[in-house]
């Protein structure tokens, strides 16, 4: 079945109200398009759990910094629509910038604390853009639940916090990272990589595995683990570390001693392409 | 009929979902309680236009500055509930601070530009508190429309802007100022006034009337009008001007020359009590 394509807020809200009033549930997958297996995994979860699946495709300009890749961010709506149809998406919400940020737009939704470190530190204003667009789009789509990928671990926690704090009446579901056969986390930005960079990009996942094995061998000092990860990543010729951190899995605050549930997260430039990856672990005590 | 009193977000959302699914409309009057005729006017509008009327009573701490009157803000829930019953309110949403701002709350909704002048300039952070609590409470009550009083003119415009920007699916209705017989705008804070202050407080409304009559006599220079207003207010012994301004009625930007729809707004301390008032006028061109 071909998904219905909705481009205006008014039409989407009217349709969502109709669905909710009829007693059906809406599962929502917000994306920036250029769909890959990671997105399809999110859609499949929504398809299983909801009566109606809404996918949004919107490259949100306010979450890109001035020196980031907004202009060249990959887009292919026809292809995305075809994949969405194959996965049984019912509605694609596909608004324009004018629709989302009309003349005179002046409102920001900000989540503090959780946004201070990791990607929040390297990308000032990024999470304000993310939380503001998510608040908007949740009010437009009115889903019962929305699904985010664990690859963007900080984003998922920040949005969950916003939903809780603003009493948005929906559930945030966080789905596991989907990887290429060789371990590279799926990302729309992988398309930027040259063959050499594509090879070096494996260092992200491999450094996380290295960390896991060091911790398995009873290392509990985060500085030691981080140092080994850094050395490994820096041994590749096209990589440049943005950050490598070990933080508490809930508060995202850096920790000195490994205990409880922790998130090991990193952002690395491979050539000019900034990639992220992470793993959640709970070292045996 | 005695209104149902709901104290938790979960119970309120469940009830609102039930009402909306049944096809009924919700009219909402958010207040900080200590109800007066101004509030009752808002409730009557809601009662006329909606199937179900929800009144919230919550003294929101985050919209008070550190040196403001949060601790002594007047409260009388039993009396409020009695008035609400008389006016046919169906539900009173009456949450605690712990319910609205649980441990770990870190989110802010901010509206720029419209919040820069007038009360926004004198009360830093005030409107962040207002917009954040309104975003929350709208998500909890899920009204079709919410009614605010024109007395808080800037607040009404700021909230309307937030609703537009965040695509909240409700209408903001702005109701006229309700006054005492002698012209003083109704306010829960009027209870703070001593008899002398109560008399001097008439200067707010009278200075607005003075401005109207000067403009009627073809004065178009805002500085001239403002100067006469200031002199009038300062002639009273217990008054101290916080601000007196003439601004564009939509953008709230100060204007030099009177033309189009303008808002004349003022905040004046009468003794220790800060009161506000305003008038919307459109000088004949």
Structural class of chain A: alpha/beta
How much of the sequence lies in strands of chain A comes to 15-25%
- Regarding quaternary structure, what we see is homodimer
Largest interface: A-B, 32 and 32 residues
Instruction: Give the helices and strands of chain A as they follow along the chain.
Output: EHEHEHEHEHHEHEHHHEEE
Helicity range of chain A: 25-40%
Account of the protein in words:
The structure is a homodimer of 285-residue chains. Chain A is an alpha/beta fold. Chain A folds into two domains: 4-175, 3-Layer(aba) Sandwich (Rossmann fold), CATH 3.40.50; 188-278, Pantoate--beta-alanine Ligase, Chain: A,domain 2 (2-Layer Sandwich), CATH 3.30.1300. Helices cover 38% and strands 21% of the residues of chain A. Chain A has ten helices and ten strands. In chain A, the strands form two sheets. Chain A has a six-stranded parallel β-sheet, with helices on both faces. In chain A, strand 2, helix 2 (37-49) and strand 3 form a beta-alpha-beta unit. In chain A, helix 6 crosses helix 7 and helix 9 packs antiparallel against helix 10. The first copy, chain A, is globular. Chain A starts with a strand and ends with a strand. The model of chain A has no long low-confidence stretch (mean pLDDT 97). Chains A and B meet through helix 1, strand 5, helix 6 and helix 7 of A and helix 1, strand 5, helix 6 and helix 7 of B. Strand 5 (107-111) of chain A pairs antiparallel with strand 5 of chain B.
